[in-house]
Amino acid sequence: MSTLKILVVDDEPGIRSGISRILRNFRVDYPFMDEAFDFEVIEAPTGEIGIEIIETNQPDILLLDNKLPGIQGIEVLEYIKKKQKSIIVVMITSYASLELAVKATSDGAYDFIPKPFTPQELKSSIENITKRVFLKKMTNKLQDSGKQIRFTFLSVLSHELKAPLNAIEGYLKMIQERQNGSKIEDYDVMINRSLDRIKGMRSLILDLLDLTRVESGKAKRNIAATDLSAVARTAMDTMRPYAIQRDVKLNLHHNGPVFMQADAEEMEIIFNNLISNAIKYNKDGGTVDFTIEQQDGCMNICVVDTGIGMTPLEIDSIFDDFVRIKNDKTKNITGSGLGLSIVKKLIENNAGKIEVSSVPDQGSIFNVRLPIDKPCS
Amino acid sequence: MNPGNYTILLVDDDQDYLFQLKSKIEHFGFKTITAEGQKEAEELLEKTRPDLAILDLMMENEDSGFILCYKMKKRYPDVPIIIATGVAAETGITFDINDENNRKWIKADRFLDKGIRSERLKEEIENLLLKNNR
């Protein structure tokens, strides 16, 4: 038997004691678990006390009311997220506000229980969470015992490089065995898919070269007065074939030449990646607006697309190595997962900053600020 | 056994691997249904009960295969599941999938490497189906 600690943060004593009562003799047991779970309920009347208990008592599950006397539930949630606590949070809320729901979910809340709730509703929510905690514990156990899933750069890289090789090898074997008969045209799909995978692999290798260039710092940087609008135009020309395929319009906005001290090649890598993403993650018939303007000693570069957008949770990880947003909308989009990680490193090497805002299904805005001669505020 | 009487569910997020596996399995004579991820597979399982399933491990998430396996066993406890993984070789996962403790919570019937030879794969599938029919 394992005991999970549940912290209830609610200012209504009735709710707190009700939950304690409902869960006192509650037990979750599944055939696939090697042990059953029961629950210890800890109560907190305010968010402040709740946070104290989180620090001292390490609860597994948090049932959180949003409307609290001091700090609000959503702030407790933000605290947990900031401190990267592995607590599963369920919001209990008396009025189902959609806006709050969206915010809380994007801040990591796992579930909602509308107030008032029946004992059965509470139990079934706790049951689901317990399953999740169980799976998480199992994964952690594997990691603790050294049987860790190590997503290091090299291992993921080797996976990313091997996957296309395996796919191509598989197709070649099928062709070698004449699986579809003797007519070459019956193998067109396999041949085209192999070529696609080779293309993907080539772009991965190119990205890797860019990354090595950034990380080794060995390559000579060639800093000179550079007209960013000219670089942007080159980048757009490079990407135009993809834009035409998707019927995406590319617009460049700037007032005359915009010069700054920079390495033109680095700028081109940044622009290529931003424009290529803005096309890839766009919708057919969409637009990409690329704006360069000078402001307070800084160069502001803004890339706006009308694409599929991202959730705040997705935005959090996009600058990491090999991260690709996986969902139904992106499943046919190829990429190495390195582009934005390269972009970010290059921008930081230039003492600049990059920020993202996005609305799912409406589009994303990437804002780059680069100092023209000294770091921007 | 007449393989034409059996439907095998194949789930993998690499569309090329899925295509190749499908053609291999159909070459053995089995019927197949396919899904490119955990979610799609779950939708399929709402409507269909396959006779066996071959699942990839890392799909939407690094543990999608396990979760799918768990959910599937809950719905169809008798349907044998093979988890096919390239993980061991590629990402440095070293946990022993034949270890009793690990197997207890991952309810899969077999763990196979993705690079497995065709004849071995066929044998494994037939063994699981026969064991199930007994």
Features:
heterodimer, A: 377 residues, alpha/beta, Rossmann fold, Heat Shock Protein 90, 3 domains, six-stranded mixed sheet, five-stranded mixed sheet, 11 helices, 13 strands, globular, B: 134 residues, five-stranded parallel sheet, 6 helices, 5 strands, 46% helix
Can you tell me about this structure?
- The complex is a heterodimer of chains A (377) and B (134).
- Chain A has 377 residues and is an alpha/beta fold.
- Chain A folds into three domains: 2-144, Rossmann fold (3-Layer(aba) Sandwich); 153-216; 223-371, 2-Layer Sandwich (Heat Shock Protein 90).
- Helices cover 46% and strands 22% of the residues of chain A.
- In chain A, helix 2 (47-57) runs parallel beside helix 3.
- Mean pLDDT of chain A is 84; it is low at 145-151.
- Chain B has 134 residues and is an alpha/beta fold.
- Chain B has one domain (16-133): Rossmann fold (3-Layer(aba) Sandwich), CATH 3.40.50.2300.
- Helices cover 46% and strands 18% of the residues of chain B.
- Chain B has a five-stranded parallel β-sheet with strand order 2-1-3-4-5, sandwiched between helices.
- In chain B, helix 1 links the parallel strand 1 and strand 2.
- Chain B starts with 6 loop residues before the first strand and ends with a helix.
- Chains A and B meet through helix 5 and helix 6 of A and helix 1, helix 3, helix 4 and helix 5 of B.
